[in-house]
Amino acid sequence: MTQSLVFGIHAVENACSAGQLSAVWIQQDSKNKRLQKLQGLLEKSNVPFFLVSLQELNKRCSDRHQGVIAEVQQLQIQGEKQLDAQLINWHNPLLLVLDQIEDPRNLGACLRSADAAGVTAVIMTKNNSAPITAIARKTAAGAVDHLPLFQVNNLARVLKKLKQSGIWIYGTDCCEHSQNLYQTELKGAIAIVMGNEGKGLRHLIKQSCDHLIHIPMAGEVQSLNVSVATGITLFEVVRQRVAC
User: Fold this and answer.
1) Checking DSSP bridges between strand 3-7 and strand 68-73, what pairing results, if any?
2) How many domains is the chain partitioned into structurally?
3) If the chain, 244 residues long, is cut into consecutive pieces of 10 residues, what is the mean pLDDT of each piece?
4) Domain residues for 96?
5) pTM for the whole thing?
């Protein structure tokens, strides 16, 4: 199985808990108590780790690694066939659909919000989308190790299948016919579709949605970062479900 890197204390802790670590490099002589605690966790898990200099870590990773870098098994993302097979097993699902999210930090932040909101699964487009990189993993703070992830080639076709399974599709778009998020009933089996950072939802994807919704903006700025908008929208769904 191919390997990839992940860095940052929280991301490595979660990868360890998920049993995905192959090897770990930790900054030697660090006084960071979290790093020391991580070292103890690795010892208990029998994961091979190596104490190296800060310079060695910087050679391996130019980002803020917090004194730890790990090699993990390549994340296995499921496809459309697996999605079809699992659809029938989901009761009252909350799905997050990401239409061509290009920035790995945005992707990671969306996945982190999805995990926090108890999302059933995340569906992503295969083309023109950010891969699950080390940066995405770090931003997701371990969410990638716990969320069912699917990548699909034809998102419009997948949305049609979701509808046929009784799932209502809500696309986020600030257009003339869009409904206020807080005045929209978001209960039952639903999928929230978030669009690209710059272009938003593609035209065909908009047409595939049952409803379009938007977050009302009180200031001069007319849009939010996609990861922020994802968190707000998902937790409005959670609020309505809890209120039932």
Assistant:
1) antiparallel
2) 2
3) 73 83 91 90 90 92 88 85 94 97 96 97 95 87 88 97 97 90 96 95 96 89 88 97 80
4) 80-243
5) 0.82
